[in-house]
Amino acid sequence: AQSVTQPDIHITVSEGASLELRCNYSYGATPYLFWYVQSPGQGLQLLLKYFSGDTLVQGIKGFEAEFKRSQSSFNLRKPSVHWSDAAEYFCAVGAESGGSNYKLTFGKGTLLTVNP
Amino acid sequence: DAGVTQSPTHLIKTRGQQVTLRCSPKSGHDTVSWYQQALGQGPQFIFQYYEEEERQRGNFPDRFSGHQFPNYSSELNVNALLLGDSALYLCASSGARGEEKLFFGSGTQLSVL
User: Fold this and answer.
1) I need a labelling partner for A11 at 20 to 30 A (CA). Which of A111, B61, B80, B110 fits?
2) Given A32, A42, A108, which is nearest B41 (Cβ)?
3) A19, A8 Cβ separation under 8 angstroms
4) Is the distance from CB of B65 to CB of B54 less than 8 angstroms?
5) A chain contacts of residue B105, beta-carbon cutoff 8 Å
6) Does residue B22 contact residue B73 with C-beta atoms inside 8 Å?
């Protein structure tokens, strides 16, 4: 069974500082990996995804993530955080269902606070 | 182009009651998945519907059931509500051929008293 661990429940950074959110996964095959962001009272917005190919993935809002198979990790990074990035971030691993669509297993999330 | 829409946005029920939540997928999508997000947790997969059939199910009891209509919209039904069913219920839609992206609605916040 697949699982996702986000070791950091809450991270606080200053505006303009760099950010790295950690994600470790467990999955028997090549994983589909995702990062989502959730603002209060909102649904989930996809930041980026990894399916195959280049292990450094670029996403929206200046985010990137690197897939490291040897470490079973998919950490999310941003070089300079903006106050509007304050939100909850979820890492997820996807498993195919019936060879077409798939279901996601999410981590428990990391709450990001940005200080001015 | 409307995205995924869910109704109602908020709902309050008492223990033992039944509830029905509704979801309209994004235009052009025919697969609907439901997730439960308890407070302070990540979303958990409940089940997925395609061609009006449940294609895959997560680790949820039979009290949780669903339906998909010919227009691809979907309902989530929960019977005999428990306090622990209080959560944000998220609907996500996608295309049938393994579209590499799920579009999520804003969810229905269910409170069971």
Assistant:
1) B110
2) A108
3) no
4) no
5) 43
6) yes
pLDDT of residue A97: 55
CA-nearest residue of chain A to B56?
A97
Once rounded to an integer, what is the mean pLDDT over residues B30-36?
94
The radius of gyration of chain B from alpha carbons, rounded to an integer in Å, stands at 13
Q: Which residues pair with A26 in a beta bridge?
A: A3
Give the residue from B10, B16, B33 showing the smallest Cα distance to A41: B10
**Chain A: which residues have CB within 8 Å of chain B?**
4, 32, 36, 41-46, 49, 51, 90, 92, 96-109
Contact assessment for residue B98 and residue A102, using Cβ atoms and an 8 Å cutoff: yes
Structure confidence at residue B17 (pLDDT): 98
Structure-token pair, residue B66: 């669903």
Q: Give the separation between CA B33 and CA B49, rounded to whole angstroms.
A: 6
